[in-house]
Fold:
Amino acid sequence: MSLNTPENSHPHDLIISRVLNVPRAALWRAWSDPDLLKEWWCPKPWVTEVKAFDLRPGGAFHTLMTGPDGASSGNPGSFLEVVPQSRLVFTSMLTADWRPATPWLGFTAIVMMSDEGGGTRYTAHVMHPDEDACEQHKQLGFFDGWNAVITQLEAFAAGLR
Structure:
């Protein structure tokens, strides 16, 4: 099964696919350097602290997002697959070294990048274990939040050229 299109998705999946006016190399650089990731990772005015970033299958990936009112959201997980400038898979269902986790929101995300026209097709495909987790993610503002972050990523990566 190809995960490149919404037509092939499962009912518990949420997908955003956009063409960004930035080369893949710049997007990958923004994604693969934790000092750069924290600049665009969550919707402004929230800020991100990268607590763990071991970019390899089984490596830890943990961000802590903090809002202007002091609210925070910790998101420990791990990377599952890393294909430079093409595909990045991470999950909240496992932590470093494949240790099982019980996250507050369970999901696995597949981020894909491919050349399209003069830019990059950027697809975020987020899979959930059940209908409740998918609906919770929608209610938390998945489409608005992830689209805002993708817009921030595009603007930030454009400055990396």
Summary: The longest strand covers residues 72-83. Residues 1-5 have pLDDT under 50 and may be disordered.
